[in-house]
Amino acid sequence: MSSLVSLENVSKVYQLGEHAFSALKNIYFELERGEMTAIVGASGSGKSTLMNIIGFLDRCTTGRYLFAGADVSDLAEQDLAGIRNTKIGFVFQSFFLLPRSNALQNVMLPLFYRGTPRQEAKENAMHLLDKVGVGHLAYHKPNQLSGGQQQRVAIARALVTNPEIILADEPTGALDSQTGEEVMQLFVDLNRNEGRTIVIITHDNEVSRRCQRVVTIKDGRIAC
């Protein structure tokens, strides 16, 4: 069986005026279905660029990206957006919940983009809010929720399309240590109990220890 994600000799170069900056250099990376992997590195090491390429938020400059065995390196933007919106679930440090929408509406939003009927979207969103432990807060707006509760809503939103991968960028970075541990336990449970494929971008050793595999990136290269 082919890997879910396979990066072959991938580099990413940003042109900054007359200067070129190599954010990633000759990356080889494989991710199997059901893995929970941490990508760790210092600020500026290239770990977020790597996440953006895996999640179809950016393109590699050179190299090949195979997703579920298919070469997606040269797909049109519209096709990449389709994969991103159906196959990838994102969780970010800053939550990115819509402030004027309640928790239920925030989780329903990705389903609206897919044309899911409203009642079905509502039922699916409520099920996931219950699963992550905040169903009783479904009609609260983000400013009425704690940081940990907002992150749980964000995780429910990432799960609602039943994605192939969850990409979490510093998901505990804005949380206190106890709340961060609770959020990490939620990721662990999703991986162990449901077989979810999860990639966590972090600089926190406590977070990376909870993952099955740790990939270290330094100066745009995978160190180990």
Shape call: globular
The CATH architecture name reads: 3-Layer(aba) Sandwich
Span of the ends, CA to CA: 24 Å
Number of domains: 1
CATH fold field value: Rossmann fold
Q: Tally the helices.
A: 7
Tell me the CATH superfamily.
Answer: P-loop containing nucleotide triphosphate hydrolases
The top level CATH class name: Alpha Beta
Number of strands: 10
Strand order of the largest sheet: 6-7-8-3-9-10
Structural class: alpha/beta
Which percent band covers the strand fraction?
25-35%
Radius of gyration of CA atoms, rounded to a whole number: 18 Å
Helix content: 25-40%
> Mean pLDDT across all residues, rounded?
94
Q: Enumerate the spans where pLDDT stays under 50 for 5 or more consecutive residues.
A: none
Largest sheet: 6 strands, mixed
Describe the 3D structure.
Keywords: ATP-binding, Nucleotide-binding, Transport. The protein has one domain (34-61, 75-222): Rossmann fold (3-Layer(aba) Sandwich), CATH 3.40.50.300. The chain has helices at residues 47-54, 77-87, 103-113, 118-131, 147-159, 177-194, 205-208, and strands at residues 5-16, 19-31, 36-40, 62-67, 70-71, 88-92, 165-169, 197-202, 213-218, 221-222. Strand 4 (62-67) and strand 5 form a beta hairpin. With 224 residues, the protein is of the alpha/beta class. It is globular. The strands form two sheets. A six-stranded mixed beta sheet has the order 6-7-8-3-9-10, with helices on both faces. The protein is 35% helix and 28% strand.
Task: List the SSEs and their pairings.
Blueprint: E1 5-16, E2 19-31, E3 36-40, H1 47-54, E4 62-67, E5 70-71, H2 77-87, E6 88-92, H3 103-113, H4 118-131, H5 147-159, E7 165-169, H6 177-194, E8 197-202, H7 205-208, E9 213-218, E10 221-222
Parallel strand pairs: 3-8, 3-9, 6-7, 7-8
Antiparallel strand pairs: 1-2, 1-4, 4-5, 9-10
Helix pairs in contact: 3-4, 3-5, 4-5, 5-6
Domain ABC transporter: 5-223
GO molecular function: ATP binding; ATP hydrolysis activity; transmembrane transporter activity
Organism: Aquicella lusitana
